[in-house]
Amino acid sequence: MIKGKSIICFAGEDWWYHHPHSKNHLMVRFARAGNRVMFVNSISMGLPALDSPDLFGKIKRKLRSYSKLVRRTEEGLLVVTPFVIPFYSSRLIRALNRLMLIWQIKLLMIAFDFTDPILWIAIPTAGDLVGHLGEQLLIYQVSDKYEANQMDHATPREVIALMHRSLRVGADLIYYSGRKLLEDETRSKMKLTAKSKLLEQAVDFEHFASASAPNGANLAAISGPGADVPEDIAGVPAPRLGFFGSMDSWLLDQELIRYVSEKRPDWHWVMLGIKSSRLRIEDLPNVHVLGPKPYGQLPAYARQFNVCVLPWVTDNEWAIYGSAIKVREYMATGKPVVITPLYEFEPLDGILRIARNYDDFIRKVEDSLSSDTEADRLARQQAVRASTWDVRAEEVSKDIEALI
Asked: What is the pLDDT of residues 103-140, one digit of tens each?
């Protein structure tokens, strides 16, 4: 593992509120290994449109991040929330943001002894800082089809695409978080395969495997009464379809949830995570939105799920490129997993269950509830057991050492 390096990571999420993403997990491990790590909370790609239901929720959450400003975490990372103006459609505002960010980050570098940093960028809007921080290495992590995300911000896709292309050209190393992202980009006109690599999502295996039943136990019995059952889920009847992660109104297939809820009123949806606006499904009697939970408590909640679900929309260009970390976390729990189709997980169809339409979703959940076995549980866990964040951090460390 690399040691004694300065790493500045411009993340696409905020440390304090989002379900931990790949950047969180990797930077924690680099900090523990003895590197100076600065985690820069999302500088955003712009505010949502004025008519977006998520607008005010996102503003409120960002203001709470600003209140934390600069904090040292227990893992040793420096987490900062620099001030920017989230209007990237304007060249003038982008130029002003560049000056403000350079000034803020350089002051922090001086104050906390960051020299010759490795610059890790995971959001296109941070590309304007390249070449201004004295970096010895530029790593660009591509986690999403950035220019396809027109729901989360109002910045024109061509502006985001231009930033993305510029980073691809300037990067010393490009990591793609999903197979579809890598395959599409390496087939494009800019074939940068020599420095493009797949960095698959991973899992804190032991953390989530703690939700598993003892060997030989009846999986259905796990969700019954017992010790360490979180109070807010204890009163939710079984069977429980469990979800954790961000609940964006444009990403969750709320019509699917409504359809299944009406067809199977005795199934209860348990939704954990942040949301920027009220969901249309919250009025349904068998939908229970319990809010965000600390990462350390997720296995205790997952232990009470009968089936882990990912009900994402399938007609959204951004979503189909997704490689949701939560799917591997679901699998590590050993619980049955039912998801809507994602390219990234098609090779695992049969180990987890992929529902092709609304009625098929019902059939897959019914199959999970009635015929899932201990062998099925072990197969799911075995499929992700070796894909840990420790392994990923070692892979990245070797790549960095080779480039340096």
From this structure: 999 999 999 999 999 999 999 989 999 999 999 999 99
Count the Cβ atoms, other than its own, within 10 Å of residue 156: 14
Q: How many domains does the chain have?
A: 2
Strand segments, DSSP code E, in 4-148 are 6-10, 36-40, 70-72, 78-80, 118-121, 137-142
Please give the average pLDDT of every successive group of 10 residues along the chain, which has 404 residues.
96 82 95 96 63 55 64 92 81 90 95 96 92 96 74 67 89 93 73 81 96 52 55 95 89 95 97 87 95 94 97 83 90 97 94 97 98 95 96 97 94
Which residue's structure tokens are 């109002």?
154
Residue 126 covered by a domain: yes
Owner of token pair 């030989």: 216
On whether both 185 and 248 belong to a single domain, the answer is: no
Q: Identify the H or E element spanning 365.
A: helix 358-371
The CATH code of the domain that includes 289 is: 3.40.50.2000
Which residues are CB-neighbours of 344 under 8 A, at least 6 positions away? 178, 179, 180, 322, 323, 324, 327
Query: Could you list the residue range(s) of the whole structural domain that residue 317 is in?
Result: 205-384
Q: Would you say 404 and 136 are in contact if contact means Cβ atoms under 8 Å apart?
A: yes
Rounded Cα distance between 136 and 269, Å, is 48
Cα–Cα distance measured from residue 202 to residue 204, given in angstroms and rounded to the nearest whole number: 7
Strand bridging mode 240-244 / 268-272: parallel
One domain, residues 106 and 237: no
Q: What is the pTM of this model?
A: 0.88
**In 3-state terms, what secondary structure has residue 270?**
strand
pLDDT at 158: 82
Q: Is 1 among the domain residues?
A: no
Short-list 323, 326, 285, 286, CA closest to 308: 326
Residues 54 and 146 in one domain: yes
Residue 45 tokens read as 């790609």
258 and 172 belong to one structural domain: no
Nearest CA to 148 out of 315, 9, 346 is that of 315
What DSSP state is assigned to residue 244? E
